[in-house]
């Protein structure tokens, strides 16, 4: 229910605040007073696009804010899905700057325009004389059937199962595609895997082999230099060790003269021992250094294999080759064991399909039973509104049980004839704007008696009717308003008199600038307003009396 609407800086409205009530809310006023402007502003918080040229003051923002009571609409899941704060009283706000930049909010949380539109569609349904698209929409027609069939739990179970079925089916196709592709590439993957497995790679092997090959390729120089170093240290007549031993002998003769010389001699002897060990290690290393052409050839062959595999797979290290080997192994295993997963998923889908068939059959039975009820009640309501010869026929084409879709196996089509003797056809082809409006009013009143609907706004759908027919249209609106909030813009006194609340829209040109204003009418003011609607701006006593009688009879 729309509780309050605030409009700032939009068209002829500088600052306007309207508090609506439950039941039937009537909006009246002269042509051009601003009734359509109010609906235009309301459409902004329902997600419609805005143009800055409509703003009243180009130096200020346009702000539209609507407060809604949404407790009975069961749309908390929408708030959770869109990460919004849920509140029984929810505020939708739209701010538009003069340069056209727009921001939208739901309970002070910023949202995009699409989210605002989706929520707005759940809260308000604006219907004008020319808004015939909804009544011809297959989804809306099915909604009418389901509301009268009264099977929300069954429908919800079907839709939840259907979504799981579609998800499973999509996953099955993905697995089948992957399996088919993997099978077609199995031989190639197996060949590549066998090639890498046969190579028996280790992660640090390449670096070690390259170091060993470098040493083998330079074995001659290494051996020669090691021999030279050993000769200079130990074997030559003037080798380092011989000279150091002679130096130690000279110091030994001087130890008795100076204690410090003894300490130096001890250090020198330690150095001689260390150098003797180094010379021995150099000799051992020289003897171990061999020129081994066979080993060189063996290493070159191994490295050639490694380099070739790296080039083939476009990598630079053995670690990357080993990772590719593991990936190939996974792909091979997927082919070998993937069919088991596909088989299990197929069984699950088959079970879901069987459940869907049973649920769809029950939905179809319920819908079939609801169709004659809808046809009868809509025709009765149309007869009340002066369309006694109107006929509504609902066709239900039932698909084969295995051809279910998101709605089941039923395909609904509304056919209509406004006059006796005319062939039934789609409503948009055979009904005038006024006839469609009354038909929509009949259908909406039927839905409202069976399920919760958002606020309905009728924008002059009573055009083309008068007299007793207008009175009957008003009575239908009155009944409709027993179950939901109805806001209607009308020029007919018969309808205006049925309202629970009455608002008068007018232009205020008392200042230099003209503004659109709105005010709720008291009972006495309603009498005067309805009298004006009956006879003009200066109603006589008979018009006032007639207005009182219309209000008294409502």
TrEMBL record:
One GO term of the biological process aspect: DNA recombination
Keyword Secreted: no
InterPro entries reported for this sequence: DNA_recomb/repair_RecN (IPR004604), P-loop_NTPase (IPR027417), RecF/RecN/SMC_N (IPR003395)
Keywords annotated in UniProt: ATP-binding, Coiled coil, DNA damage, DNA repair, Nucleotide-binding
Residue span, RecF/RecN/SMC N-terminal domain: 2-510
GO MF term (any one): ATP binding
Any one Pfam family match given in the protein's UniProt record, by short name: SMC_N
Highest taxon of the lineage: Bacteria
Gene Ontology CC entries for this record: bacterial nucleoid
Coiled coil: 261-288
TM regions (residue ranges): none
Role played: May be involved in recombinational repair of damaged DNA.
Protein family according to the UniProt entry: Belongs to the RecN family.
Protein name per Swiss-Prot or TrEMBL: DNA repair protein RecN
């Amino acid at each position: 229910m729309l509780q309050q609407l605030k409009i700032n800086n939009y068209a002829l409205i500088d600052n306007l605040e309207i508090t609506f009530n439950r039941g039937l809310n009537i909006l009246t006023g002269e042509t051009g007073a601003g009734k359509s402007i109010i609906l235009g502003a309301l459409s902004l918080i329902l997600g419609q696009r805005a143009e800055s040229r409509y703003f009243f003051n180009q130096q200020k923002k346009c702000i539209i804010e609507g407060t809604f009571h949404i407790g009975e609409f069961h749309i908390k899941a929408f708030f959770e899905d869109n990460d919004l704060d849920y509140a029984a009283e929810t505020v939708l706000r739209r701010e538009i700057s003069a340069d056209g930049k727009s921001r939208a909010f739901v309970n002070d949380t910023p949202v995009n325009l699409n989210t605002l539109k989706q929520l707005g569609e759940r809260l308000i349904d604006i219907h004008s004389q020319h808004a015939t698209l909804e009544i011809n929409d297959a989804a809306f027609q099915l909604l009418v059937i389901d509301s009268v069939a009264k099977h929300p739990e069954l429908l919800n179970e079907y839709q939840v199962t259907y979504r799981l079925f579609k998800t499973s089916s999509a996953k099955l196709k993905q697995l089948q595609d992957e399996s088919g592709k993997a099978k077609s590439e199995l031989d190639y993957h197996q060949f590549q895997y066998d090639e890498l497995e046969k190579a028996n790679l280790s992660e640090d092997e390449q670096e070690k082999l390259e170091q060993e090959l470098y040493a083998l390729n330079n074995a001659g120089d290494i051996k020669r230099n090691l021999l030279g170093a050993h000769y200079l240290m130990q074997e030559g007549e003037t080798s380092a060790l011989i000279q150091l031993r002679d130096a130690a002998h000279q110091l030994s003769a001087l130890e008795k003269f100076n204690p410090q010389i003894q300490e130096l001699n001890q250090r020198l002897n330690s150095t001689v021992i260390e150098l003797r060990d180094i010379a021995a290690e150099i000799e051992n290393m020289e003897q171990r250094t061999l020129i081994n052409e066979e080993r060189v050839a063996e290493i070159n062959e191994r490295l050639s294999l490694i380099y070739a595999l790296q080039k083939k797979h476009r990598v630079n290290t053995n670690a990357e080759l080993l990772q590719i080997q593991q990936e190939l192994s996974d792909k091979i295993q997927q082919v070998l064991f993937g069919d088991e997963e596909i088989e299990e998923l197929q069984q699950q889908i088959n079970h879901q399909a069987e459940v869907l068939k049973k649920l769809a059959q029950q939905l179809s039975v319920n819908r079939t039973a609801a169709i004659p009820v809808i046809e009868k009640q809509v025709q009765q309501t149309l007869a009340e509104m002066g369309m006694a010869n109107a006929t509504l026929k609902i066709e239900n084409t039932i698909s084969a049980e295995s051809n279910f879709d998101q709605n089941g196996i039923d395909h609904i089509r509304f056919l209509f004839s406004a006059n006796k003797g005319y062939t039934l056809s789609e409503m948009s082809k055979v009904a005038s704007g006024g006839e469609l409006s009354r038909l929509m009013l009949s259908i909406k009143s039927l839905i409202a008696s069976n399920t919760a609907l958002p606020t309905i706004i009728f924008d002059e759908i009573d055009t083309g009717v008068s007299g007793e027919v207008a009175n009957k249209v008003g009575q239908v609106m009155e009944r409709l308003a027993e179950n939901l909030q109805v806001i209607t813009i009308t020029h007919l006194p018969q309808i205006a008199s049925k309202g629970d609340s009455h608002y008068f829209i007018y232009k205020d040109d008392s200042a230099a600038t003209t503004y659109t204003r709105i005010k709720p009418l008291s009972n006495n003011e309603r009498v005067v307003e309805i009298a004006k609607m009956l006879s003009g701006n200066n109603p006589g006593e008979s018009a006032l009396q007639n207005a009182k009688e219309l209000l008294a009879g409502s």
